[in-house]
Amino acid sequence: MRLQKATLFGLYSILELARDPERQLSATDIAGIYGISANHLAKVLRDLGRAGLVVSVRGAGGGYRFSGNARRTTLLDVINIFEDIGATGNAGGNAGPPGEGEDTDIGTALLKVQGEIDDIARATFGSITVATLLRTMQWYGSGSSPAG
Amino acid sequence: MPDTAANPSETITIRAAGEDDCERVTALDALITGLRKESYWRQTFERYIGRDGRHVLIAESAGDAAGEGGFAGFIIGEVRAWEFGSQPCGWIVAIGVVPEQRVHRIGERLFNAMCEKLEADGVETVRTMIARADHLNMSFFRAQGMMAGPFIELEKPVAWKFENEE
Q1: Å from A129 to nearest chain B CA?
Q2: C-alpha angle B51-B57-B63 in degrees, rounded to nearest 5
Q3: What CATH code is carried by the domain that includes residue B86?
Q4: Count of domains forming chain B
Q5: How far apart are CA B138 and CA B129, in angstroms?
């Protein structure tokens, strides 16, 4: 599975800001670190602000600051702001009318397989808090650490 | 030698379990799961206490005014070799912390102490199995740095039979 672009940008922003909750970064700062669109990121940050995970600080040196609880906020909490993973069918327990071909025997079986994958994805994202990811990412392989 | 360290409210000691701890572990598990498994825990203690490559560790809080230390939690681990072709590997079989004593990093202390025991036994990896719906323990093990391993658990009801096949 791949997360949508806005979801990924949201996760980048939350994790980058939560590295140091005292630090303020603008959309342009974060966009520069990850090489992504500042315009798109500005909209993502507004969504994160409405969810109470970041606050915007106005004035010179202003920007965004992490305002959530890093030990309570899971990756799934952030993902759910932008998309509903596992919402593709009924196999994952989602109610709603079947999609095209999903009410056939093969369609139902394929949905069941997707449901398995979605269940694992939700359980995994739901078990990793922002604090856990920041603490354990040293073991996740190489990667640059752009934050100063 | 017992492993001790201060935490905000008390000092916790990690020690090897004795047979006397069986009832405390049974009671804590019953409190957590809602199911008292007397014979299961008795047999587990018989199989694990004093056996090579098998460990039961107990977390105990410092003595109170009456001088009696408090049972704070337990962890059980062992070395398993060549299961499903796997290299020898440490397994966390069970862990439990008294609910009133949680968020004092007692589980982390127990986990780290068990990892040291298993490392001394010669294994390089520690593994466990957890229900996807068990968010509390899944988050705990994730916070210790555990992540998905190379195996996946599969199951099926034994009553499922293929139709029209001999």
Answers
A1: 8
A2: 135
A3: 3.40.630.30
A4: 1
A5: 9
| Burial annotation B65-88 (CB, 10 A radius, 16+ → b, else e) | eeeebbbbbbbbbbbbeeeeeeeb
Closest CA to B55 of B135, B123, B103: B123
With CA atoms as reference, the chain A residue closest to B141 would be A127
Find the DSSP H helices in chain B.
22-33, 38-48, 106-120, 135-143
B132 closest CB neighbour out of A119, A129, A140: A119
Give the minimum alpha-carbon distance from B80 to chain A in angstroms, rounded to a whole number.
Answer: 24
Q: What is the per-residue pLDDT across A66-111, written as a single tens digit (0 to 9) for each?
A: 999 999 999 999 999 999 987 554 444 455 678 888 899 999 999 9
Number of Cβ within 10 Å of residue A23's Cβ equals: 16
Which token pair is B28?
A: 């804590």
Could you read off the pLDDT of B65-96 as tens digits, one per residue? 555 569 999 999 999 988 888 889 999 999 99
Q: Which domain holds residue B134?
A: 3-143
Q: Is residue B137 part of a domain?
A: yes
Phi/psi of residue A75, nearest 5 degrees:
-60, -35
Domains of chain A, residue spans: 5-85+129-139
Class of domain A5-85+129-139: mainly alpha
